[in-house]
Design a protein that fits this description.
Elements lengths: L1 H34 L12 H11 L27 H6 L4 H11 L2 E11 L2 H14 L3 E9 L4 E10 L3 H8 L4 E11 L1 H26 L4 H33 E10 L16 E12 L5 E12 L4 E10 L9 E10 L11 E15 L2 E16 L3 E13 L6 E12 L2
Parallel strand pairs: 1-5
Antiparallel strand pairs: 1-4, 2-3, 3-5, 6-7, 6-13, 7-8, 8-9, 9-10, 10-11, 11-12, 12-13
Helix pairs in contact: 4-7, 7-8
């Protein structure tokens, strides 16, 4: 019995399969008809489409159980045109207006140029560059001129209409010798096109938010929408600013002009010897005047060490003219300097420079310690960079000892050299 059942079961399954397929196909056609009703038939066609559908429904289904697609509407019937798909929209040619705008964007080029020109007269060349730029409808952005009688330089930045930039180059190159020329062109058409699309999308979004705001019913919703509208308006203004900037960059070339004069040969530096000190000798006769006590004469010499030609220290030794003693009878150590008048050459002449002399210091006269203050009038007979010869008359006051004060008068001759 079991063997018989196993033999009959496949046969029954094969018999029932066509019936199930037909019922499934009929149910699927019914669902398709409910989801998308068939378009109305064309009166001229006489209901051929509906007949074809009913006849097709009555035919047995294929063993594969595949649903039969519904027929497409006839080309001539209303509503028979299919919706435009993204693929077809991409293949559709742009309108003439869009084609012209895209062609204009492709020509948007930001041009920058740098010129370096050697000229002979900076002021004249700068004026010529400025005149050429203004004649071509350009604009002066910045100008910086430096230098005077020697080497000079000028840096000028200009904006010139793109169509007239070649004319400016030709005129500028006649000013002098062009040392370098550099021109760069950057295509900004794509950036401009992208900014235009971004602006269009922002404006559409702004209108949508304004429509939503008009239908808002709560204060909280209105405030939120107003904040978003403010952000959108700010973004729109920023994009518009970018478009204006790119439009200006494409309309006018930016040109940097460097003008300079040829540098003069550097001056020849002659290293000359420089004196450190000015040693010298001075010979003189000193007359000591003591009033009622009489006077006494001394002869002697001084060693001078000058820190400059006009200022130094002096150490002198004297003996009496009677020569009745041995050794030195008077010693002076003074610090002094010379003073010149601007009305009398300021000590810069080579011959006959008058001067005033002043000194102060210590003196030991006849075994007595005293202070000395003196002044003098002198004349530099010869004065050169390495040698000075002068005559001087001095008057000194000595005081501070028990013997009282006294006066000394001394004519002298001095010579000093540079060391």
């Amino acid at each position: 019995m079991a063997k018989l059942t196993r033999r009959i079961y496949p046969f029954l399954l094969l018999c029932l399969l066509p019936a199930c397929g037909a019922s499934s196909a009929a149910s699927m056609d019914a669902k398709a008809g409910m989801a998308a009703p068939a378009p109305p038939s064309d009166p001229a066609s006489g209901g051929a489409e509906s007949i074809a559908v009913s006849e097709e429904a009555e035919q047995p289904a294929a063993p594969t159980m595949a649903a039969t697609p519904s027929p497409s509407p006839a080309p001539g019937t209303p509503g028979s045109e299919p919706a435009t798909t993204p693929e077809r929209a991409a293949e559709a040619p742009p309108s003439p207006k869009d084609a012209l705008s895209m062609a204009a964007m492709k020509k948007m080029v930001d041009i920058e140029a740098r010129l370096s020109i050697e000229v002979t007269d900076i002021a004249k060349s700068v004026a010529q560059v400025r005149k050429v730029a203004f004649d071509l409808g350009g604009q002066l952005v910045s100008e910086n001129v430096s230098g005077g009688q020697g080497p000079a330089r000028a840096e000028i930045a200009l904006r010139i209409p793109v169509g007239k930039s070649d004319g400016f180059f030709a005129a500028a190159e006649t000013l002098g010798v062009v040392q370098s020329r550099q021109v760069t062109a950057k295509d900004i058409g794509k950036q401009y096109y992208d900014a235009t699309l971004r602006l269009s999308n922002l404006e559409v979004t702004l209108k949508r938010y304004e429509g939503i705001l008009a239908q808002a019913k709560s204060v909280e919703e209105m405030l939120r929408l107003e904040a978003e509208l403010g952000r959108l308006r700010g973004e729109i203004e920023r994009v518009k600013g970018e478009l204006r900037w790119m439009g200006d960059r494409a309309a006018r070339a930016t040109i940097f002009v460097s003008l300079f004069t040829k540098a003069d040969a550097p001056p020849v530096v002659i290293l000359r010897p420089k004196a450190t000190i000015f040693p010298g000798l001075r010979f003189g006769y000193l007359r000591d005047l003591r009033g009622d006590a009489g006077s006494q004469g001394f002869v002697g010499a001084s060693l001078t060490v000058g820190f400059t030609q006009a200022f130094g220290i002096e150490v002198g030794g004297y003996r009496t003219t009677e020569f009745d003693t041995s050794g030195v009878d008077a010693v002076t150590v003074t610090l002094g300097g010379r003073f010149y008048s601007e009305y009398l050459g300021n000590g810069e002449r080579e011959f006959l420079n008058p001067y005033l002399h002043g000194r102060a210091g210590y003196a030991r006269f006849l075994s007595r310690n005293e202070a000395i203050v003196g002044a003098g009038l002198g004349l530099e007979i010869l004065k050169r960079e390495w040698l000075t010869l002068d005559l001087e008359g001095r008057g000194s006051v000595l005081f501070g000892s028990k013997a009282g004060g006294h006066v000394g008068v001394e004519p002298s001759l001095g010579v000093s050299v540079a060391f």
